[in-house]
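User: Sorry, what's this?
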Amino acid sequence: MESGESATVLLLLANLFILLVAYYVLKTVREPLILASGGAEMKSYAAAFQAAALVLFVPAYSWLGSRLDRSRLIVAVVLFFLVTVELFYVGSLVRVPHLGFAFFVWVGIFSVASIALFWSYANDLHGPETGERLFPVIAIGAALGSPVGSKVAEWLFTSGVPAYQMLHVGAVLLLVHLALYQVVERRERRRRRAPARPPPLVHGPGGFALVLRSPYLREIAVLLVLLNVVNTTGEYVLSRSVVNEASRAAAADASLSVSSYIGAFYGRYFFWVNVTAVLLQAFAVSRIVKRLGIGGVLLALPLVAFGAYGLVAAGAGLAAIRWAKTAENAVDYSLMNTGKQMLWLPTAREEKYKAKQAIDTFFVRAGDVLAAGVVYAGTTWAGASIASFGAANLFLVLPWAAVALAVLKRYRSVCAARSRGEGSDPSAPR
């Protein structure tokens, strides 16, 4: 690393670590709250409500981004999530109906919005050359935070801590997360001798408009939609297998709690997914980026997914499905996650905040909505088996890989244009 970079990179790594610990505590809490009350189908359908909520969230975020500098924007977004997570605890005390479903929707929005904000900020601090070099290091924070958060949640569940009490852990971690943002911001202003506060984003198109006018951003959006259709359908496959196994175990042992069984399973599952992701992030991602470039990063996950759902389509049981999904998600959370952030390095600053928030929230959840449609059609009309859903995902991996190749070609074109001094705005029509 160059002079002055190390401290900022370590602070960003630590901040991403804290964010992912908070997310995985909350993510693990949401599983028994919705699966024990609504089942795997209800979990899948919740994605539609997330997308509907994001139709309102993205314009509101763009409106704030046009009026606040980046520091105040970060404070506003983080405090919004901190306050609302505590409101869910209050709701549990007064027994608000369907709170588990609402919390599942909230966690889905919190995860994509807060992580997108972090990477918008990281992209704002670094150009393409430094970003390709440093992002694999910064992303280690996510790979480390995920298993720690899931392990903390598993320990809390097995210790008998009520699910809604765990929300306070998430709230405290969000306070630390916000404080670390401010430390980085002050340090970067001193290091770059920048003005006291960076200006707000210019008034102009919102996130959706920026995506729709840019061929490059549209292709990224389609890529993430297809990725999430496959991944979310796969999560349904795993959830349905877990619920079936929990029901069989409870029938054999009346003292067994279905909710505790599911919570403990997901705590172990998330832990091993993220341990694998840590190892990949620490020892493989930077080497793959260096030797194969972003092409190797973007194409690795479709190949892994094809193998995973080949096993499911062949009729594999819960143990095999668990490890197939572990491999898929570990590559997604390490290699693919780094690649997704690198795609934004050559974009304009306004796109890094507004368009990235639109793609990483609404378009990601739109993929989940389409997956919910696949689940609804398969379960309601076709009576599809778990193996049938695996076969459907095998089919979907093919267009996903084709779009990844198109994005790769566009990325190289944008970076080449930037290096020739033709501008860094890929939103211009081509």
Notes: The chain is about 85% helix and 0% strand. Confidence is low (pLDDT under 50) at residues 423-430. Residues 5-65 form the longest helix (61 residues).
